């Protein structure tokens, strides 16, 4: 009974914070904007806003400027769709990397994850999502067409499918394989040292590195 009462009180407190309007409209606006960030509820947003109020004004201004500068200055690479401050990202511009091997990943976070292994020395292609019919995301909503065009135009010899081993990842793998099977390119995927159903960004660097080194040919039925 005490447990249920404590849980009920927590619900009341959370509901009160979510609906609370503060004495300061400026604070209220700041909390509302912070609460729009992923993983940040109104309670956490209030704590962050109050923390900023306790700091020197210059610190909050520096934070604000850095966010504005990032939003205005960071763009997407015209070649691989990774983040970049130039038209072409530093990875695509690096002449020491193998331009004929392309690692296909879901997001920019996955580029960072794979780079941390120091086992991939080619280029990347960021899809910007995965095919998910249940969520209304089709092949036209991710960067698959540009990948196919890139393979054809640049004479890519190997495409490494480094997508998370989930239902959406496997669906996207198979679709890409079918789109590329008429081109003279080797399609491989990560060895299944990566756990089924897990997200790539949460895989430790050693396991991911070994999966890259031990990648296997994708034949259309590998992930099924």
List keywords for this structure.
224 residues; alpha/beta; 12% strand; 5-stranded mixed beta sheet; 7 strands; 9 helices; two-stranded antiparallel sheet
Short description:
By secondary structure, the chain is α/β, with parallel strands linked by helices. The chain is built from nine helices and seven strands; from the N terminus they run ααααββαβαβαβαβαβ.
Overall strand count? 7
Describe the largest sheet: 5 strands, mixed
Straight-line distance between termini: 48 Å
The portion of residues forming beta strands comes to: 5-15%
Rounded to the nearest angstrom, the radius of gyration is 22 Å
State mean pLDDT (0 to 100 scale): 86
Overall geometry: elongated
Helix/strand-derived class?
A: alpha/beta
Report low-confidence residues grouped into runs of 5 or more.
5-17
Oligomeric composition of the shown chains: single chain
**SSE succession:** HHHHEEHEHEHEHEHE
Strand adjacency order, main sheet? 4-3-5-6-7
Summed up, the helix count is 9
Provide the helix percentage: 40-55%
What does the model show?
The model is unreliable at 5-17 (pLDDT under 50). The radius of gyration is 22 Å and the shape is elongated. The strands form 2 sheets. The protein has a 5-stranded mixed beta sheet. A two-stranded antiparallel ribbon has the order 1-2. The protein starts with a helix and ends in a 7-residue tail after the last strand. 25% of the residues are buried. The chain has 9 helices and 7 strands; from the N terminus they run ααααββαβαβαβαβαβ. It is 46% helix and 12% strand. It is an alpha/beta fold. Helix 2 crosses helix 3.
């Amino acid at each position: 009974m005490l447990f249920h009462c404590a849980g009920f009180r927590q619900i009341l407190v959370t509901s009160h914070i979510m609906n609370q309007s503060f004495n300061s409209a400026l604070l209220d606006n700041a909390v509302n904007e912070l609460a729009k960030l992923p993983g940040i509820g109104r309670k956490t947003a209030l704590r962050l806003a109050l923390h900023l109020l306790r700091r020197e004004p210059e610190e909050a201004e520096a934070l604000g400027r850095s966010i504005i500068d990032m939003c205005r200055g960071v763009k997407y690479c015209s070649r691989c769709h990774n983040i970049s401050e130039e038209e072409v990202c530093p990875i695509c511009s690096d002449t020491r990397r193998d331009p004929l091997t392309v690692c296909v990943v879901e997001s920019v976070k996955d580029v960072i994850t794979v780079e941390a292994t120091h086992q991939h020395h080619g280029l990347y292609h960021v899809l910007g999502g995965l095919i998910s019919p249940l969520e209304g995301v089709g092949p036209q909503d991710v960067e698959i067409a540009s990948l196919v065009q890139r393979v054809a135009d640049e004479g890519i010899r190997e495409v490494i499918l480094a997508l998370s081993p989930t239902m959406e990842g496997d669906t996207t793998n198979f679709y890409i394989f079918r789109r590329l099977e008429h081109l003279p390119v080797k399609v491989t995927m990560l060895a299944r040292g990566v756990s089924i159903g897990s997200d790539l960004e949460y895989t430790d660097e050693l396991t991911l590195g070994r999966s890259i080194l031990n990648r296997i040919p994708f034949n259309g039925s590998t992930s099924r």
